[in-house]
Amino acid sequence: MSSIPAAVPAPPSGDEPRRGRPGYDQRQVLDIAVAAFIEHGYDATSMGVLAARLGLSKSAIYHHFPSKGDLLRLALDEALTALEGVLTAPEALQGRAADRLAFVLRGAVIVLVNNISYVTLLLRVHGNTDVERDALARRRAFDRSVTALVVEARDEGSVRSDIDPRIVTRLLFGMINSLVEWYRPGGPENTEKLADDILAVALDGLRTPTADRAG
Amino acid sequence: MSSIPAAVPAPPSGDEPRRGRPGYDQRQVLDIAVAAFIEHGYDATSMGVLAARLGLSKSAIYHHFPSKGDLLRLALDEALTALEGVLTAPEALQGRAADRLAFVLRGAVIVLVNNISYVTLLLRVHGNTDVERDALARRRAFDRSVTALVVEARDEGSVRSDIDPRIVTRLLFGMINSLVEWYRPGGPENTEKLADDILAVALDGLRTPTADRAG
């Protein structure tokens, strides 16, 4: 989300021309707010700064988002709802635990890539406000569900039992969430190949099956 | 950071009441500065804030650290020198590439755990100043060395060849660097066991060797 010119009228999205000031729909305002939060930090981004970026008056923003916290809440909800959707898809609920775990990891990679700025914001939340604490609680619940899947996969014998399942979840999401640091949309890495690579390392490791495992 | 002259008289050890100004050596000042940078952000931490945290006058800090950038430079150098030291240890230079790679990954975990606040600061650097850009250049050089090891290990046949070695390095350090988010010194996870766990996932994966790999 690097190249959003500040205060340039947004193109009327599709159909109708909008009245008066540059027109944005709620999602566009949110996109621009999220980019500003990531670039400058949430605390350092005032509604005035956002208004300037959008070329709107502060009152025009307040009309749709009564506070900066509302923007944050909606943005975090966007990321969390997408992640939670992976856990409730049929493929996450039926079948062998190992396959469900693989589905959830792949789904998390795809959600992250498709919502990279929203997930970046989510990963930077540290619980300074009620909105942030609610988001952290939902993240923890997501992690617990993944850990429960790891436990199931271990109990069915398909995942190694010598690592604490909570550590497993943290390492897996360490790998997945690192994408926000280095993945650039439109880069050479295709999302599906990236998900394949992450699953390959997570499930089968780097070492070739024929290599000496004593090292 | 070896043998740095004390800025002011060293604090009385134990619980004797202190007289006059508190005394710190350079490392202690750096530790407190790094903690403040992490808590409030580097930009938001003024020398005045640091002086207040230390109970020193600003001039007492400036006497040893002419600018805030000097504190940042020393802190980042601390983390980078420790990481670079792993690459130049004999075990990183001799033997099979797969074993050298395993040694470097384990060493990086140990450096991270033993210098967690310094590495946390390093990982948050985004290149806004010359000091930060120099640190990023050293981080990239470190990553390139690890990638070169991955390539060697692939060429000797001990590491899978179906993933771009640069992606491999990013995923490995995604997993390792995530420790700064969740590892707490003194917690239940022992450093060696943590390093074992990370190497186990990275090299052999989560899946049990007997499990069906078709999933």
From TrEMBL, chains A, B:
The keyword Transcription regulation applies. The keyword DNA-binding applies. Gene3D superfamilies: Homeodomain-like (1.10.10.60), Tetracycline Repressor, domain 2 (1.10.357.10). SUPFAM superfamilies: Homeodomain-like, Tetracyclin repressor-like, C-terminal domain. Transmembrane segments: none annotated. InterPro entries: Homeodomain-like_sf, HTH-type_TetR-like_transc_reg, HTH_TetR, KstR2_TetR_C, Tet_transcr_reg_TetR-rel_C_sf. It holds the Pfam family TetR_C_24. This is Transcriptional regulator, TetR family. It comes from Mycetocola miduiensis.
